[in-house]
Amino acid sequence: MQRLIVRTGWRAPPWAGSPCIVSCRRHNSTRPDTDILFRLQSDLKSALKSKDSLSATTIRSVLSEVYAGQKRVAPATLKPSDVISIVRKAQQRRLDSMSLFQSASRSDLAQREEKEAGLLASYLPAMLATTEIDTILRRIISESPEKDNVKKAKGMALKDFYTQVDKNVVPGEVVRQRLDELWPS
Q1: What percent of the chain has pLDDT over 90?
Q2: What is the pLDDT of residues 61-110, one digit of tens each?
Q3: What is the pLDDT, as a whole number, of residue 169?
Q4: Residue 74: left if φ>0, alpha if ψ -120 to 50, beta else—which one?
Q5: CB-based contact 119:55 (threshold 8 Å)
Q6: Rounded mean pLDDT of 139-152?
Q7: How far is the C-alpha of 50 from the C-alpha of 96, rounded, in Å?
Q8: What is the spatial distance between Cα 113 and Cα 119, in angstroms, rounded to a whole number?
Q9: Could you please report the per-residue DSSP string of 21-48?
């Protein structure tokens, strides 16, 4: 079936389908909305359309770090957990800068960094609560065999913990601290 546009006389080629049938990155709707990279890209577009310069520059800087990370990984794309870790590091940098600006009595710059950190926090998954971490660690400790080398046994427990839980939803120092407290002496 050929489509005819009357005004210009242009005729679509026979191989051209409708935009819904043609598969391309822009019209592909197979990606879930939970994909953080897709969310960043779509939010950048909406920030640019609404002329929100703070959101646009913040998201652009994070996306540039993500694209640089993709180039380092070579042909494979980054996993969502890798993108989350990049966003978390960017948020931490903003929070560190905010504290430095506050100590230097630059409240205007500190407020900007605080807004950027808050924007980046909206892309991060919720952190696992300490009680949930304790529950998982207690189960792992109860299932682990007794070993003579405590350091090696704790290392194995951490390894088991991170096979069950994504590293991006728990702070590493809290997990180590809770493991030390819960470990039987």
Answers
A1: 35
A2: 999 998 888 888 766 677 888 888 899 999 999 999 999 999 999 999 99
A3: 82
A4: left
A5: yes
A6: 79
A7: 29
A8: 10
A9: TS--TTT---S-TT-HHHHHHHHHHHHH
Residues 6+ apart with CB under 8 A from 26: none
Torsion of CA 139, 141, 145, 146, to 10 degrees: -150
Q: What is the dihedral of CA 94, 97, 102, 106, to 10 degrees?
A: -100
Beta strands in 26-179 (DSSP E): none
d(CA 133, CA 147): 22
How far apart, in whole angstroms, are the C-alpha atoms of residue 81 and residue 127?
13
| Length of the chain as a residue count | 185
**Counting beta carbons within 10 angstroms of the beta carbon of residue 32, is it exposed (0 to 12), middle (13 to 18) or buried (19 or more)?**
exposed
Q: What is the dihedral of CA 144, 150, 151, 157, to 10 degrees?
A: 10
Residue 159: per-residue pLDDT: 86
Q: Please, which residues bridge with residue 11 across strands?
A: 4
pTM of model > 0.70: no
Give the C-alpha separation, 3 to 88, whole Å.
49
Average pLDDT over residues 156-185: 83
